[in-house]
Fold:
Amino acid sequence: MEKKKSIILLVTALMAILLISGCDGIISNNPNPDYDEANTVVSYFEVTPAKVEVKVNQSQKFEAKGYNSDNKSVKIDLSKIEWRGEFECRHCGIVWKLTPSQNSRETTFTPLKKGNYKIWVKYEIEGITKWANAVVVAK
Structure:
């Protein structure tokens, strides 16, 4: 009986601490503290890595990041993102794989032919379009 009371007291004390703290110590109000919550207008975009050398059929992951006029990272609406690829030989057709091609902060690019590529990300919101790219050399 004494053990049962101790467990109930311990659980009650833990719940009281949790309620008093308001969960701030456990769950952050801002899931990414690097984001600027005050100035949320996207001034420019970057794709990382900006330049990479890969082998044919070797996949490389790219990430789009939006920044405000204070050079701080801002949240971006993923439904407004579109990824595109470009090869040095325009009449060669699509000689790469790019997945996903929209609605994602990240994409995976795989060149299917040797040469120079550009990976473009387009972000369009409220009639304003922002572009950024990365360079890929496939050997």
Remarks:
- The mean pLDDT is 85.
- The chain has two domains: 1-30, 44-138.
